[in-house]
């Protein structure tokens, strides 16, 4: 279906064309509003009683490579509201079409803003001239600046915390509007006085989410005594996790015994695990030395001198913050160990036979869909074989695995690559 193009379709919404003219590179469109009345800016009452008429000149989007000058046949109205101070007012249009006192239509201003943002002052002005949008570079920058600073909405629920201008060097204060999820202020430092000065201008704030006490609590209490202070979610989690870690650290020995990592057979470790295990033993050794010295009444300074460790490390050990746990990664054979032990006790000690029975159980773990899965199964199978081999190779005294099984398995793997 084909519709004819009405001339009014090219001018902003709410206007109709009264007259068209051409002047060199420009098209001059005289338009008027389709509204018969307008709202008074003083009291909001709509009035249709016309006082006089005048012409308002603006620029609009170019048409067919020609710039467009809009002449609006605007009106002045009487305001008849009894309590209104304004007797006469000029015609107002929809804010998203034409702002009062604007020299450009809103849709052209939008384009000018984006040109300025994308290209900056001078280059944008050059492009704008070619697009038949007559704006200077100063105007472009002014538009970007005007639209770049959003209106400040006084917050009622805020979050306050410190943030780093430069980590470990210089800290400032960040204030967020938690309802609008926006940063609203960055203060130059984290002094309570600075925060207090900012907060005391914002009496409408009634909830302040902050860190765990200290400077911001004092600042808030002084500036906004009526406001409710709450710990923010991050700091609550931080509290909880610190408490948990302290509890774990204090019971490290018992935990270590319970998870069985106190009895580690170094021979069963992989090469990488053995390196980690050596490091762990070394750390434990250092911890014991430092703790023994401290127990016998040696001062921290003297411990540092005797052991050659840093002061920070000695302090951490004495506070119990350096005890760790050595755990080997659960290997793929682990889940089959009960079954293997049972087989062993029942006298099935042939490595090849054990492998043959173990292998089909493995395929239950994966349901290969694509070739990559098949590859993963193969990898898993290979790793499992290595662990099984190790299990048979270093028999513990209780199970007493035979040399025969070991040999059988070695033969099997060398044969199967
Ligand atoms: Zn009025």
Describe this structure as you would to a colleague.
It contains 14 helices and 12 strands. 43% of the residues lie in helices and 20% in strands. It is elongated, with a radius of gyration of 40 Å. The protein folds into 4 domains: 10-147, no CATH class; 173-250, no CATH class; 254-318; 334-416, no CATH class. A hairpin with a 2-residue loop joins strand 1 (15-23) and strand 2. The strands form 3 sheets. Strands 1, 2, 5, 6 and 7 form a 5-stranded mixed β-sheet that branches. A 5-stranded mixed β-sheet has the order 10-9-8-11-12. A two-stranded antiparallel ribbon has the order 3-4. Helix 1 (106-119) packs across helix 3 and helix 13 (371-393) packs antiparallel against helix 14. The relative contact order is 0.05. The protein is α/β, with parallel strands linked by helices. The site of zinc ion has 8 residues, from loops.
């Amino acid at each position: 279906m084909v519709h004819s193009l009405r001339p009014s379709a090219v001018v902003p919404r709410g206007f109709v064309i009264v007259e068209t003219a051409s002047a060199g590179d420009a098209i001059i469109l005289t338009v008027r509003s389709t509204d018969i009345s307008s709202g008074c800016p003083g009291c909001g009452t709509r009035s249709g009683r016309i006082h006089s008429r005048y012409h308002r000149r603006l620029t609009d989007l170019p048409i067919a490579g020609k710039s467009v000058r809009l002449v609006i046949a605007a009106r002045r109205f009487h305001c008849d509201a009894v309590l209104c101070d304004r007797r006469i007012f000029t015609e107002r249009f929809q804010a998203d079409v034409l702002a009062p006192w604007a020299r450009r239509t809103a849709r052209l201003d939008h384009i000018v803003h984006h040109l300025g943002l994308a290209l900056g002052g001078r280059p944008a002005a050059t492009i704008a001239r070619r697009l038949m949008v007559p704006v200077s570079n100063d105007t472009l920058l002014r538009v970007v600046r005007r639209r770049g600073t959003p209106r400040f909405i006084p917050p009622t629920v805020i979050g306050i915390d410190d943030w780093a201008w430069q980590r470990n060097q210089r800290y400032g204060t960040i204030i967020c509007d938690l309802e609008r999820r926006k940063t609203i202020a960055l203060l130059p430092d984290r002094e309570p006085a600075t925060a207090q000065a900012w907060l005391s201008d914002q009496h409408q704030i009634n909830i302040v989410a902050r860190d765990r006490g200290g400077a911001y609590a004092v600042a808030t209490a002084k500036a906004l005594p009526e406001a409710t202070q709450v710990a923010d979610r991050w700091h609550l989690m931080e509290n909880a996790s610190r408490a948990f870690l302290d509890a774990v650290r204090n019971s490290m020995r018992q935990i270590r015994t319970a998870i069985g990592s106190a009895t580690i057979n170094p021979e069963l470790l992989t090469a990488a695990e053995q390196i980690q295990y050596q490091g762990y033993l070394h750390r434990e050794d250092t911890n014991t030395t430092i703790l023994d010295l401290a127990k016998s009444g040696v001062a921290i300074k003297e411990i540092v001198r005797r052991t050659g460790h840093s002061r920070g490390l000695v302090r951490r050990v004495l506070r119990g913050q350096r005890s760790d746990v050595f755990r080997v990664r659960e290997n793929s054979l682990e889940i089959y160990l009960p079954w293997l032990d049972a087989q062993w006790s029942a006298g099935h000690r042939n490595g090849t036979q054990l492998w043959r029975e173990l292998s089909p159980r493995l395929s239950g773990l994966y349901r290969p869909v694509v070739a990559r899965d098949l590859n993963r199964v193969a990898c898993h199978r290979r790793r499992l074989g290595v662990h099984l081999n190790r299990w048979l190779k270093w028999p513990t005294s209780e199970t007493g695995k035979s040399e025969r099984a070991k040999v059988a398995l070695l033969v099997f793997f060398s044969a199967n690559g």
